[in-house]
């Protein structure tokens, strides 16, 4: 094919390529450009919750000697999950059914497949693959929060692809795929209260059990090295939740708007509830406590975001700011069993318990007409309270059944993640130790990576040379004045 190039733009004539240079299917009739644009934006917002959101939050929330390792665990997981996701993870989660809880292995990298319409939504598979990837990635990064400060980084490198393959994909297919076992039963998990938060909370706590605790002095005193940095990460996490819950209708719709508003209302209510409880019982307004309350609110509303009324979102915020507070501040401290497991970032409370609470409250509060907007079915999805309010025997039966399905989903996710996480940890342990040596844990980042987060002291000199770093005593030329400077 040959053509004459268009005349250069002269300020008055618009520059345009000939029509036959554009592929005819670049914007097929089935694609909605607004939905596609919103879905890509939502995916990017969720991705930014991890990179840089949780990288910054973890890096600031741990002891100084663990800042690099904690942030790097998040960065590594994000990259590894993406590669695994396009090669096999996406199809295991959303592809053709192999068994009622798992899809068939296949790749998602071929142009023909990626440009076809997604299984839901008026946009191509490429958009859906990317959108679902960022959810898978953040799940692994949340698990990392439970084992910060002692897990062998090489063990983490193996854990990530294995857990993604044998645990996450099973939960995602079962609950989110259109042919999954719990999906066809009618479970409501709007945006990942089960698949992401309950899964990561249970898996993180289980992994923490197998990895073992931090050093005793680290468990007793583990102050954040930079609370302001931690707050910046928390802010990215909160604002990123606009895409987390707003992207799950797979359309730039009114339901997406409702989900976004409910998400932020619940998070704010939960934060304030946690803060008030801290002030009442500990006489201090804790910044760290406020962040915990924010997270539990965001987690709790996630399975219900677009299917509950605004008043329900406020009630969910009150409960998510108080029940996980009670389990963390009272129950955990009195339970010998819970004390034995060293859960660094308290993912059991902020994700497993808050996710369970959200799943149960979804079964209570979900509104039939909102569920119809989201799922497209009339009367199949109905919370217990709306069913009781309608009063008919059929409505009550629907509501009771919904609660039963929600509870069954919780039990399934808990069992799945305890079993699969344990098997993955035991397998990894056959290859490399799950836990760093006590000597390396004394040192932290420099032992693990030969690097440290805050290396500058006083007037620019290093406090001391590191015997682990590859970058000590390197002479760097100074171009301006000649000579060299020694990095020490």
Summary, kept brief:
With 488 residues, this protein is mainly alpha-helical. The chain has helices at residues 33-61, 67-94, 111-114, 125-144, 153-176, 181-185, 193-211, 216-220, 227-246, 254-282, 287-301, 310-320, 323-334, 336-340, 347-365, 368-375, 384-390, 393-431, 438-443, 445-449, and strands at residues 97-99, 102-103, 474-477, 484-487. Strand 3 (474-477) and strand 4 form a beta hairpin.
Order of SSEs:
HHEEHHHHHHHHHHHHHHHHHHEE
CATH-level-2 architecture: Orthogonal Bundle
Strand order of the largest sheet: 1-2
N-end to C-end Cα span: 62 Å
Described by the principal axes of the CA atoms, the overall outline is globular
How many structural domains are formed by the residues? Answer: 1
- Give the name of the CATH superfamily: Ammonium transporter AmtB like domains
| Major β-sheet annotation | 2 strands, antiparallel
Please identify the structural class as seen in this structure. mainly alpha
Assigned CATH class: Mainly Alpha
Would you count the extended β strands for me?
4
Strand % is: under 5%
Tell me roughly what share of residues is in helical segments.
Answer: 55-70%
CATH-defined fold name: Ammonium transporter fold
